[in-house]
């Protein structure tokens, strides 16, 4: 359990640490960090399902101008770990993940605020011509800060998660049912946020086409995706032919 807790803490630390985002932007999203937590905790399938459910409310997530509507970097790995050690179902895990993301916005603010000190320190080293020290300031301190405010809570969740799970299970049934209902509505919120970015008349028909194929024809997601790719390629080719013809005229 200690090894698992340390690995979960490392995953949570890297989810917020900027350098891991330079390697892959996927660290930002619960579907990746939560999936890694599932592998570490020996439940990859359940972890992937929980991580995907937690990710849905954040599917339209954007940090415009530094504004953070949530903290998915924390909600993904910690919410998945908490759900696995507590035996929560997917809907309840989604609610817990969203609550964690909302409550820990302050954690992200603290993380970014503290890291400004290392930026100024790196500038001073650069002016002094000490490139090695400047690089250390860019990498090491931000990792340690993330380990302290993100990794330590994640470690404690895994180590102390079982008693917390018992506390959750002691809730009245109506509270548990409410969590389930809210968790079922959260993905719809994420989908709605995504549709706002796709709110273009030319794309609306394709959205309803996909919905109709899934609802009335019972097509799987993979089949709809495959058809969507074919349609996209055809439209791209037809537009290319039209531009060639116009250029020839």
Indicate how many domains the architecture comprises. Answer: 2
What would the principal axes of the Cα set say about the shape?
globular
Count of individual beta strands: 0
Query: β content, as a range?
Result: under 5%
Number of alpha- plus pi-helical segments: 11
Rounded mean pLDDT score: 77
Structural class: mainly alpha
Helix content: over 70%
From the N-terminal CA to the C-terminal CA, the straight-line distance is 71 Å
Unreliable sequence segments:
none
Radius of gyration: 22 Å
**Order of SSEs:** HHHHHHHHHHH
Main beta sheet: none
Task: Walk me through what this model shows.
InterPro entries: GatZ_KbaZ_carbometab, PTS_IIC_man. Keywords: Cell membrane, Membrane, Phosphotransferase system, Sugar transport, Transmembrane, Transmembrane helix, Transport. This protein has eleven helices and no strands. It has 249 residues and is mostly helical. The mean pLDDT is 77.
């Amino acid at each position: 359990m200690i090894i698992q807790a340390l690995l979960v803490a490392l995953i949570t630390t890297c989810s917020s640490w900027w350098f891991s985002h330079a390697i892959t932007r996927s660290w930002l999203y619960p579907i990746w960090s939560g999936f890694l937590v599932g592998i570490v905790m020996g439940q990859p399938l359940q972890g992937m399902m929980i991580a995907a459910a937690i990710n849905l409310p954040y599917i339209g997530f954007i940090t415009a101008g530094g504004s953070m509507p949530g903290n998915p970097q924390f909600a993904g790995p910690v919410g998945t770990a908490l759900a696995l050690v507590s035996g929560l179902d997917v809907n309840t895990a989604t609610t817990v993940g969203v609550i964690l993301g909302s409550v820990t916005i302050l954690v992200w603010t603290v993380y970014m605020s503290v890291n400004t000190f290392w930026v100024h320190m790196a500038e001073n080293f650069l002016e002094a011509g000490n490139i090695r020290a400047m690089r250390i300031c860019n990498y090491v301190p931000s990792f340690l800060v993330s380990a302290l405010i993100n990794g330590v809570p994640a470690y404690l969740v895994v180590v102390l998660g079982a008693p917390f799970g018992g506390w959750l299970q002691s809730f009245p049934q109506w509270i548990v049912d409410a969590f389930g209902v809210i968790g079922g509505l959260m993905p719809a919120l994420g989908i709605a946020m995504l549709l706002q970015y796709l709110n273009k008349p030319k794309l609306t028909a394709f959205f309803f086409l996909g919905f109709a194929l899934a609802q009335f024809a019972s097509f799987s997601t993979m089949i709809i995706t495959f058809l969507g790719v074919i349609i996209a390629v055809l439209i791209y080719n037809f537009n290319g032919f039209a531009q060639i013809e116009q250029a020839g005229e």
